[in-house]
Design brief:
There is one protein chain. The radius of gyration is 14 Å and the shape is globular. The protein has 3 helices and no strands. The two termini are 21 Å apart. By secondary structure, it is mainly α. α2 packs across α3.
Amino acid sequence: MTWGYRDGFPEAGHNTYDSMQAAIAESNLMITEELSIPESPLGIIAWQRAIEQKLELNLWVEDGGHPTPEGMPLSASVFYAVFFGEDHINLPYSDEFGIDEATS
């Protein structure tokens, strides 16, 4: 499940991030339920929580849709948890993307 655009998607009737994220979540959860497949809830677990908790992360690049180097590890941690069934917290730190260890 992807994350919503920073400013929503007005062309599709979603004028805010929250509106777009709710629509993405609803449709994705319906599909995964119907097909009995696992969900990687990037949008509602990682991105939405980071926004709600007012974490000092810059998640989107200028286009408002794609992730920054801070948004990429946030998403990757959810994939890791879903694929391997364990938390990413104990993984070794890498500064490959130029993110400090506290942020990662």
